[in-house]
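pls design
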């Protein structure tokens, strides 16, 4: 019954495109693509990628659509995720995929008048420079679609880094996005606030005309990972290191991060020993989550069962509450005792490492 209601709701929320008439009367050869008839998560991810890193122009009577990426960091994403998505989405195998000689970059190119017409005339994506580009209205009417667009945006031009704070190792998560389009950045601010993220009011304006939007802290990080997430191994390797080690060394490329996860590189050889202070708060929080996964517990019982002081358990619970990883179990609130239980987000965090490793092996062909 529930699945029927969900399918009916999804059918009601489907957004279809107007009938498309494209004039293909021209000399020479062209190939046909399959144009989407409605908004889907796959199309939303492609639109996010196009806004971040796509280029569209007219070349010899046909439209050229091109995406560029880093030859090392973006290789698994483009090869095993994005190119298959384009083939499935537009029904074409004629996708040029090549590296740029002498540069650490790779290009993906589709030449299609039909697809160019669809993206420009129907979706409203601009040709040439993207100084005033925004997310099309088609992709702002459903939360599921909004999340897919944001995922596509951040998978390419977004970043996740871990900063050193309060004398500890690089443990403080910072997610940021940059663009030359101020309209897009204002749009992002509004969307992220509506989704419950803590976003600064002011955009950082660089001298080169680039605007930067940052979301800081574990609360934003956990909300992102539990509601939106990443599909690019470039970001997922950082997430994996953070979940495994509680910190992420800076200035490593994808290959080095994979080697660190596999144990081919020792952390002590690439990271200053003086910064490897144990972050006891993170260790305590992980133990609390593991204990709550067995069932709700009262705070004093938590401290006794996992050999922690009551103060340490209280501090951990307060932070886990802010991040949405635990909640008060009010049904068991007897005699003013506060019981706590793990949330679905908390379960997500406990199994995150296992799921990411499985994705690396099965989807991206990365041996970790």
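designed seq:
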């Amino acid at each position: 019954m529930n699945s029927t209601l969900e399918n009916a709701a999804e059918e009601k929320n489907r957004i279809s495109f107007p009938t498309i008439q494209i004039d293909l009367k021209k000399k020479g050869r062209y190939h046909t693509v399959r144009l989407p008839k409605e908004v889907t998560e796959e199309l939303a991810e492609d639109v996010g990628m196009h806004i971040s890193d796509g280029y569209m122009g007219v070349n010899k009577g046909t439209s050229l659509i091109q995406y560029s990426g880093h030859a090392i960091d973006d290789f698994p994403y483009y090869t095993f995720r994005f190119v298959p998505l384009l083939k499935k989405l537009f029904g074409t195998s004629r996708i040029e995929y090549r590296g740029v000689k002498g540069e650490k970059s790779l290009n993906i190119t589709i030449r299609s008048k039909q697809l160019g017409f669809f993206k420009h005339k129907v979706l409203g994506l601009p040709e040439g420079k993207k100084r005033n580009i925004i997310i099309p209205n088609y992709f702002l009417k459903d939360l599921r679609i909004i999340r897919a667009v944001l995922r596509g945006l951040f998978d390419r031009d977004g970043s996740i880094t871990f900063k050193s704070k309060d004398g500890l190792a690089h443990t403080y998560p910072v997610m940021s996005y940059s663009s030359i389009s101020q309209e897009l950045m204002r749009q992002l601010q509004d969307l992220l606030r509506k989704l419950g993220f803590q976003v600064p009011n002011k955009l950082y304006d660089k001298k080169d005309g680039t605007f930067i939007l940052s979301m800081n802290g574990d609360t934003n990080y956990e909300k992102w990972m539990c509601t939106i997430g990443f599909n690019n191994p470039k970001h997922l390797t950082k997430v994996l290191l953070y979940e495994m080690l509680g910190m992420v060394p800076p200035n490593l490329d994808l290959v080095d991060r994979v080697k660190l996860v596999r144990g081919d590189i020792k952390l002590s050889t690439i990271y200053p020993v003086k910064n490897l202070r144990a972050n006891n708060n993170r260790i305590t929080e992980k133990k609390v989550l593991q204990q709550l996964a067995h069932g709700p517990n009262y705070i004093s019982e938590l401290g006794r069962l996992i050999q922690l002081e009551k103060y340490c358990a209280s501090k951990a619970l307060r932070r886990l509450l802010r991040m949405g990883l635990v909640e008060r179990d009010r049904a068991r609130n007897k005699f003013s005792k506060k019981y706590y239980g793990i949330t679905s987000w908390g379960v997500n965090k406990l199994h995150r490492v296992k799921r990411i490793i499985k994705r690396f092996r099965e989807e991206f062909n990365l041996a970790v």
